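Handout for the seminar on molecular recognition.
Each group receives one record of this type.
Step one: identify the two inputs.
Step two: read the structure output and locate the region that could contact iron/sulfur cluster.
Step three: write two sentences on what you found, then compare them with the reference statements printed after the record.
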Amino acid sequence: MYSQDVSDNPVYTISTAASLLNISVHTLRMYEREGLILPFKKESHQRLYSDKDLERMRCIRKTISEDKIGIEGIRRILSLIPCWGILSCSKKDRQNCHAYSEYSKPCWMLNHKDNYCTSRDCRTCQVYSSFGNCKSIKDKLKEIIL
Ligand code: SF4
């Protein structure tokens, strides 16, 4: 999970978030299009970001700049998250879910029709949030693998 003391309250506009991350608004939008981040969306469609979102983006930026893994690579890594195991989906749900067989996009980028995730909010789902920063990704993988 994210650091306990980091707020998930969406308060920053896209321009403030981009400025705090020292990146352009265009880059932040591109990360969203690529499925690396799910900002909170108001009814007006305005996007808002929380401190947890910023933490997530810092991990992504670090992975790109220090570990030399590109956006496509990060997306593929996220697509390998075994969400069905984390949420204990039934066999029937797995058969009816692209996330179980697809490996090019994270589960939260896929259309979920008539399965366990149809009406779930991905932004608050433990699958999305458990893989929110570099430490949580490592901890979650240890939990799953050991
Ligand atoms: S609710 Fe969304 S993030 Fe959670 S497992 Fe389903 S598709 Fe993935």
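Reference statements: The radius of gyration is 15 Å. Strands lie at 12-13, 40-41, 47-49.
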